[in-house]
Write a structure and sequence with these properties.
The complex is a heterodimer of chains A (about 400) and B (about 290). Chain A has about 400 residues and is of the alpha/beta class. Chain A has two domains: about 230 residues, Rossmann fold, CATH 3.40.50; about 140 residues, Rossmann fold. Helix content of chain A is about 45%, strand content about 20%. In chain A, helix 4 links the parallel strand 3 and strand 4. Chain A starts with a helix and ends with a strand. Chain B is an all-alpha fold and about 290 residues long. Chain B has one domain. Chain B has eleven helices and two strands; from the N terminus they run H-H-H-H-E-E-H-H-H-H-H-H-H. The chains are: A alpha/beta (about 400), B mainly alpha (about 290). Chains A and B meet through helix 1, strand 7, helix 8 and helix 9 of A and helix 1 and helix 4 of B.
């Protein structure tokens, strides 16, 4: 996706030259409020990052057009986390120390978020993420973190229901080394056991290998009747190809981010046959979702675009509510606009108008209700299942 | 039986890795620095092959040739205009310069092709089962192509005048210059062949998986490990090293979780360098 990447480069260059031009930036009220975006433009998340960036920028552009927040325009400072914790920490420090952003939005991989989160809470910067590992919200983040993605536990529970619903009894989990690997397996196993099924093998592999045939052999030794492939797109493609070559035709389940349509287009249809995918569903019936679709000019934003829409909207509304552009103001006020008995609003602009009129608001997002628990998790969400038929994703159901 | 399957898998993946590893060792033998820009040349080769195979609908073998040629030409140009001026400043500066170069080239590829995964236009085939061992026909073909490329390279080095000049230069640059061998020409030639091999290796890896701009960067550390284990600067050493690392990584699965596979390559480096600081075959160019 050269478009967003190019724009990111230009914006970053513009931001850099602005800093170079004014070594002592004045803090006048007319200065734009800088919002940090740290998302994978490259690496395993490179398929989702640019789209999330676009969704955030669309919300921000809409708000700027309507006059901005607190009398100031909004501006994004964009960094690429490279789906790499080390690069991400460097970029996060730059956003915090050089650009002085109150918020960082967009980390995707759990390993990246786990690395960036301490940098954020130590410097009182607010972090919005889609990473699913349970451990993330259990970090001592003091409220400086929210995630719009359901936890691995919520996800694994839903997936186990789906698999057990297909009548499968022996599930082999083959997945990438990642913070969510172990907890996913444990939650899957726990739920499957209540339904007379179980996880019979668990193989964790390393990323970036050209083949996983030995790993597959290891998993097959326990004679499973279903495969749960818990990886990212580059490695899942290799696993699917190796399964086909080895003449293993079991049904398999993947997270939808591991086999987006674009990835399916790169592999022969017979390789992806019998693959089911699941993803936290955006609230496709909701008003915020339809607004996001119109804003982005696409028929159906996916869960990541919906979540990115929600971060930008939540952050903007919280800034307006708190009347202050700091990370601490964000953490202390986000729940005042995201949940509660206030007037329901479905977009940032709408919410800003209601706040200006002195009303209390409750933002209902494109990804779901956006009500957060004390530790920053969403309280619930829907799941959407698809099946791959002839190399195309076909809608199955929303639960 | 499991052990034999693992060894077979290891030999297959090792042979593919040997192709770019030879390139890395060849550059070290002649130009005396580790050229990490090999990673981006693998990517460039993989994408050149993609353009030939998917956009122009060429068959696989001519596409592999395109991967070799384009990566080779880019290799000559990048060495001539970017790395050559670094060489006066010493080994470390040039090696670090090559890391900067590889990131720049990788991003150039990303700028043109974007980030998404791409696949070659190649039907996928089921494994053959021979005597209880599973062999993928694609991997077997890749193996034969890799062996053919290595065979051609060794024939070139031993039986042609230019090849002998290259070996002479790698052995003793001073003496070779006195004998009238043009150092610049040898440098260009080695860059062409080595980066061409990198490009070929990049596409070979991609044939069995998918490609994206990171295709070279993902394997460069393993390739480096292979070259060092075999003896940096020795071409047969690069082959031996790649096979050892490939088989070692697979056999480690007998006792270790797959998640620790890469550790084996680097443990191998530590062990070999402790026992034989110049690698298994030592730092001879042939």
């Amino acid at each position: 996706m050269p478009g967003p990447t190019r724009r990111a480069l230009i914006t970053a260059a513009a931001a850099a030259s602005a800093i170079a031009a004014s070594p002592f930036p004045s803090r006048a009220q007319s200065d734009p409020i800088k919002l940090g975006v740290l998302t994978p433009l490259t690496g395993a998340g490179g398929q989702d990052g640019p789209r999330m960036l676009k969704a955030m920028e669309a919300v921000i552009a809409e708000v700027n057009k309507a006059g901005g927040v607190l009398g100031r325009k909004l501006e994004t400072v964009i960094e690429d986390d490279q789906t790499n914790p080390e690069a991400a920490v460097r970029a996060a420090r730059k956003l915090i120390e050089v650009n002085k952003v109150p918020v960082i939005m967009g980390t995707w991989a759990s390993a990246v978020t786990s690395a960036v989160a301490p940098v954020c809470w130590e410097s009182k910067t607010f972090l919005c993420t889609v990473s699913g590992a349970d451990s993330i919200t259990q970090l001592p983040h003091q409220g400086y973190l929210i995630r719009t993605q359901p936890t691995s536990k919520l996800q694994a529970t839903a997936h186990a229901d789906f698999i057990a619903g297909m009548g499968k009894k022996k599930v082999a989990v083959v997945g990438i080394q990642a913070p969510f690997a172990l907890s996913t397996k444990e939650h899957l196993d726990a739920v499957l056991k209540t339904k007379g099924a179980k996880v019979v093998a668990h193989v964790i592999y390393e990323k970036d290998k050209a083949t996983y045939r030995s790993e597959i052999d290891q998993a097959m030794r326990s004679d499973p009747d279903f495969l749960y492939l818990n990886g990212y797109a580059p490695d899942t493609v290799v696993v699917l190809r190796d399964l086909y070559k080895a003449n293993i035709n079991l049904p398999k389940f993947c997270q939808s981010y591991a086999v987006p349509q674009k990835t399916l287009d790169t592999i022969p249809a017979e390789v992806s046959a019998g693959t089911y995918t699941g993803q936290p569903s955006a609230d496709i019936e909701g008003k915020a979702f339809k607004l996001a679709a119109a804003r982005l000019g696409i028929a159906e934003p996916d869960s990541y675009e919906a979540q990115a829409t929600d971060w930008a909207s939540l952050v903007i509304l919280t800034l307006a509510k708190a009347k202050e552009a700091t990370g601490t103001a964000l953490k202390e006020n986000v729940r005042k606009i995201s949940q509660g008995a206030g007037e329901k609003v479905w977009s940032a602009v709408e919410g800003l108008q209601a706040l200006a009129a002195g009303k209390e608001i409750n933002y209902e997002g494109a990804s779901g209700p956006c009500d957060f628990t004390e530790i920053g998790d969403i309280e619930g969400c829907r799941f959407r299942y698809m099946e791959v038929v002839d190399g195309k994703l076909r809608f199955l159901k929303v639960v | 039986m499991e052990v034999w399957q693992l060894i077979l898998n290891g030999l297959m993946s090792g042979t593919i890795l040997a192709v770019p590893a030879i390139g890395l060792s060849a550059i070290f033998a002649v130009l005396r620095f580790t050229n990490f820009a090999l990673a981006s040349h693998m990517t460039i080769g993989a994408f050149a092959g993609f353009v030939a195979n998917v956009w122009l609908a060429w068959p696989v073998v001519p596409s592999l040739l395109a991967a070799f040629l384009i990566a080779g030409v880019v290799g000559v140009l990048s060495d001539e205009f970017i790395l050559k001026p670094f060489r006066a400043a010493g080994f470390i500066t040039t090696a670090i310069g090559s890391i900067a170069l590889t990131i720049a080239l990788e991003n150039a590829v990303r700028f043109v092709f974007g980030n998404e995964l791409r696949g070659y236009d190649l039907p996928i085939r089921r494994d053959w089962v021979l005597g209880g061992l599973r062999v993928s026909p694609q991997q077997l073909e890749n193996l034969l192509i890799a062996l053919a490329a290595m065979g051609l390279l060794f024939a070139f080095l031993f039986f042609t005048r230019t090849g002998r000049a290259m070996r002479a230069f790698a052995d003793n640059p001073m003496l070779a210059s006195i004998k009238g061998i043009n150092a610049d020409m040898v440098a260009r030639l080695v860059s062409f062949v080595a980066m061409g091999l990198a490009g070929l290796g990049g596409m070979l890896i991609g044939l069995d998986t998918t490609i994206d701009p990171l295709v070279g960067f993902k394997s460069i550390l393993t390739i480096f490990a292979a070259a060092v284990v075999g003896g940096l600067g020795s071409l047969p050493g690069a082959v031996v090293g790649a096979l050892l690392v490939g088989v070692g990584e697979e056999l480690s699965l007998l006792i270790l979780q797959p998640a620790y596979r890469s550790a084996i390559g680097f443990l191998a480096i530590l062990m070999v360098l402790t026992l034989r600081p110049r690698g298994i075959l030592g730092a001879r160019a042939y």
